[in-house]
Please model this.
Amino acid sequence: MDFVPGKLMDNESAGVAAELIPDGLVAADGDGRILFVNTRATRILARPREELVGADIREAVDLQDSDGTSWWTVTNPWGGLRIRTGHREKLLMLRHNGREVLVTAKYLRPGRNQPVNRVNILMRDALYRRRAEAENAAVISTVAHELRSPLTSVKGFSSTLLRRWDRFTDDQKRLMLETIEADADRVTRLITELLDVSRIDSGRLQIRPLPIDVTAVFNRHVERAVAQGLDRDRFAIEVSDELPEVWADPDRLDQILSNLIENAFRHGDGVVTLGAQRSSLDGQAALEAKGHHAVGVDLLVADEGKGISSDHRHLVFSRFWHGSGRGSTGLGLYVVKGLVEAHGGRVQVEDGEKGGARFRISLPSEPPDYLA
Model:
């Protein structure tokens, strides 16, 4: 028999089912006497089952609001309107041990407009919620810090130029305007990354895959970097012969490669190698699991720097990870991972052939099933 809250609480199947739910469950009768308590509830209440069963639920589960008011006095499940069915989840505190719990209540009646004859209370430890709130607070603090620095620079240089324009030479003005432009670009990029993080976390990231020539994409990124002042000799392109096209969103693929190339120059020395080859077996398995055909392409971005230790490789794609230094928002690789997985691919970091770190991106070489 399946477990139905408030019914047949004393039969064996109901008890087994109640033990399988992740929340603490306490059931009381029409007089408020506890009929059933699952193991999770005994742990949350820090009281043995023998002490709880038969006790008044208002005393054994002594819930209170943040202002110290008894929750039972405020809600009074056995009184009040007879159309009430319960209460939505609310953060409360157990008076006897000070533990915060998320509580949901369900009232059961034998018939329409009849008195309550069963009250079921579900309790969930609020520790995980507090951790989530702490993580959100840390994110807000980090974002505020990342925004403050460039905005302070923009404000300082613009104010100085406005007040003392005639005192500076043209070269000095150009330098300050270039600094303002660079810092404004930094703010724009941070906002873009935050929006992408939000879309990734909420599952709203949209991908429009098209067939792409990998060599052409690599060459475009090299030319862009050279135009920005980097030496062409700092790049090497290694693309396997007869490599199939990659099916990816062109704008998102550019974003992925831009993040990885910038990361390679920030943390590496020497030549940055852009490579492409048919997918490894692991890469093909990842693509198949995402609904793509087995054939795929691995894109490689490798530097010749210090590399990333094996102890840190599971952290590099997390939010706000900076490694041994800062100099970035710490969101780039998190966004890369989200973008790659949105394509049905996989990204991993490994040792480069010439030292340093190498990022391997496995992407499909055939259209997804919904386009095939």
